[in-house]
TrEMBL record, chain A:
Region (Disordered) location: 25-56
First-listed, main subcellular location of the protein, grouped into a coarse class: cytoplasm
One GO MF term attached to the UniProt entry: mRNA 3'-UTR AU-rich region binding
Keywords: Cytoplasm, Exosome, Nucleus, RNA-binding, rRNA processing
UniProt KW Nucleus keyword: yes
Family, similarity comment: Belongs to the RNase PH family.
Descriptive protein name: Ribosomal RNA-processing protein 43
Intracellular or extracellular location(s): Cytoplasm; Nucleus, Nucleolus
From TrEMBL, chain B:
Similarity annotation: Belongs to the RNase PH family.
Subcellular compartments: Nucleus
Protein name in the entry: Uncharacterized protein
One GO-annotated biological process of the protein: rRNA catabolic process
InterPro entries assigned: ExoRNase_PH_dom1, ExoRNase_PH_dom2, ExoRNase_PH_dom2_sf, PNPase/RNase_PH_dom_sf, Ribosomal_Su5_D2-typ_SF, RNase_PH
Organism of provenance: Cylindrodendrum hubeiense
Transmembrane segments: none
Domain (Exoribonuclease phosphorolytic): residue spans on this chain: 9-138, 144-206
Alphabetically ordered keywords of this record: Exosome, Nucleus, rRNA processing
MF terms in GO: RNA binding
Length: 336, 249
């Protein structure tokens, strides 16, 4: 910082955020190392901390914290009888999660978690966009095995399908045959306690940590009462084998305009905070799964600018950063 | 409409809007109307640049979360193409009404769907660009977009997949390049490797920026000849329209 300037850091930041961030990234004297205004290097992330099973009434929950972004995610299971699903087909064992809507994520950006979220009013575009992205990724990444959500029923001995049945739409339990009588529906509620940028990474990590923590009660179909009974004592954890992780970076061009800077200079700021997000147009989010050493990409979303070239998006540096982030998050989620 | 049909466009067909266009391709048909630049409301106005307001309306029902997601993607992309700094305190409103979508007869259609709808993005983007051009709003560049699917059975990639192919694909990619060959937008879902990602980016760039390397058409993967250069198409329809408008001279 120039010692002659009559402005404090906070005033400078508030008056002209762009030059402020630029001055931090490009310090005028050589003995000050370039850093972002939050003190981090451009490729330095905020270390995540994960605390699971913090909610006592949910079947699974987790709090994920990255710097000042704190998200809590609760997973609650409810049962639905297959006879109550209008489009149910017993032969469908591929698209059941999507077709019967067995995963219901919802995001709430709480009032007060950041100044821009005001009480009342419909959910913001950000909240709606995030929930669509989480929903899509939950399905396309296939992290949940549908078998975990099926509640099986074996037809009782000496009973046939059309005997002793008041309604014909009850599960057809033919003698000794196993049928799916009901499903678990997972309500995944994601709640931002504090919001300081990078909402998607935090929300997705919280979802994965909460799902990994989820234990559904043992449930069975009671043919006499025609309902699902679940056990108070026994519970079965959901098997989550892969934990994909989302990594977001924004591109700062150093200019307030939407035009890219003349000399083509730009900074890729990983794990952006709220100030940085508001100053950058372009962002990229990559979701990777590096289990067993081979990297699989589950989603890439890049929009809002033209600075990131295909070469940069396929570069080793970019992908290895995602790989490192995956390791860091997996360690935090698996260990606690 | 057969999915492989040529792209079709109708320009300036809405008399009340400043600019309008209907773009249909691959079973999708989108009506776009552009109004602006007009004065922004006090609470929306930005003293330094124009606000680009994108509204997406689905073919049936009211817009939900997936429409909000499409709006935010398109808004970010179009903001880069329109010189927003030239119109301070203004709003440019772009309304996109989906008129037709290809149907997948193999699955039950649900009215309200929450998941991402990637294959519709090119149709929305092209309709928006044509409508902005007819509204005589300057653009720094135009953009062309394409959809590429990697099928589950590891056969060749499919350019402009049908609804069934898109549904069964292992991964689905939408890429958009500006007329200056810059990557404007890239959305992918599904599971794919780094090698596949590199190939998809190369193929997408070839398709979107076709006119520069006409000789490469034959080298492209199966079915790509269907994908006529959208950039050339936009250019030719606008040229025809301009010639028509100047006919009285």
């Amino acid at each position: 910082m120039a010692p002659t300037a009559g402005l404090t850091r906070a005033t400078f930041a508030k008056l002209s955020p762009h030059p402020y961030l630029l001055a931090n990234l490009e310090p005028s004297s050589d003995d000050v190392p370039p850093a972002r205004s939050n003190g981090r290097a451009p490729n330095e992330v905020r270390p995540p901390t994960v605390n699971s099973s913090s909610l006592s009434h949910a079947h699974g929950s987790a709090v994920v914290r990255m710097g000042d972004t704190t998200v809590i995610c609760g997973v609650r299971g409810e049962t639905i009888l297959t006879s109550n699903i209008p489009s149910f087909r017993a032969s469908n064992n591929e698209t059941e999660l999507r077709e019967y809507d067995l995963l219901v994520p919802n995001i709430e950006l709480a009032t007060g978690c950041a100044p821009q979220f005001l009480p009342g009013g419909p959910p913001t575009t950000l909240a709606q966009t995030l929930s669509t992205r989480i929903y899509s990724l939950l399905h396309s990444s296939k992290v949940i095995n549908p078998d975990n959500l099926r509640i099986w029923h074996t037809g009782a001995e000496g009973m046939t399908a059309n005997e002793d049945r008041m309604e014909d739409d009850a599960p057809d339990a033919i003698e000794g045959e196993k049928v799916v009588a009901a499903y678990w529906v997972l309500y995944i509620d994601i709640f931002f306690i504090s919001f300081d940028g990078n909402p998607f990474d935090a929300a997705w990590a919280a979802t994965m940590a909460a799902l990994r923590d989820t234990k559904l009660p043992r449930a069975w179909y009671d043919a006499d009462r025609e309902m699902v009974i679940s056990s108070r004592k026994e519970s079965i954890p959901i098997t989550i084998t892969n934990i994909p992780i989302a990594c977001t970076a924004v591109v700062f061009t150093g200019k307030e305009t939407d035009r890219p800077s003349v000399d083509g200079k730009f900074w890729m700021l990983v794990d952006p905070d709220r100030l940085e997000e508001s100053l950058c147009d372009e962002s990229v989010t990559i979701v990777v799964d590096c289990k067993d050493g081979d990297t699989r990409i589950l989603s890439i979303s890049k929009h809002g600018g033209t600075v990131l070239t295909p070469t940069l998006l396929t570069s080793k540096q970019f992908l290895s950063w995602a790989g490192k982030r995956w390791e860091e998050f997996n360690l935090a989620i698996v260990q606690p | 409409m057969a999915p492989s049909a040529e792209p079709a466009a109708e320009l300036s067909h809405l008399p009340k809007a400043d600019g309008s266009a209907t773009f249909s391709y691959g079973g999708y048909s989108v009506v776009a109307a552009v109004n602006g630049p007009v004065e922004a409301q006090r609470r929306d106005e930005n003293a330094f640049e124009a606000l680009v307001d994108v509204i997406v309306r689905p073919a049936a029902g009211v817009g939900g979360t997936r429409e909000r997601q499409l709006e935010s993607l398109l808004q970010a992309a179009l903001r880069q193409l329109i010189p927003v700094r030239d119109y301070p305190r203004c709003v440019i409103q772009i309304t996109l009404q989906v008129a037709e979508t290809p149907e997948n007869a193999y699955v039950n259609t649900k009215l309200v769907q929450a998941s991402l709808n990637l294959p519709i993005i090119p149709a929305l983007l092209h309709a928006a660009i044509l409508a902005i051009l007819t509204a005589a709003i300057p653009l720094k560049a135009i953009a062309a977009a394409t959809v590429i699917a990697i099928p589950d059975d590891n056969t060749d990639v499919i350019v402009d997949p049908t609804a069934v192919e898109a549904d069964r694909a292992r991964s689905l990619h939408v890429l958009s390049f500006t007329s200056q060959d810059e990557l404007l937008l890239s959305e992918s879902e599904g599971s794919f490797t780094i090698d596949e990602w590199t190939k998809i980016l190369e193929l997408g760039q070839r398709i979107c920026c076709q006119h520069q390397q006409p000789g490469l058409d034959t080298a492209m993967a199966g079915g790509s000849h269907e994908s006529r250069s959208i950039k050339e198409f936009i250019r030719s329809v606008i040229e025809a329209k301009t010639a028509d408008d100047l006919y009285w001279k």
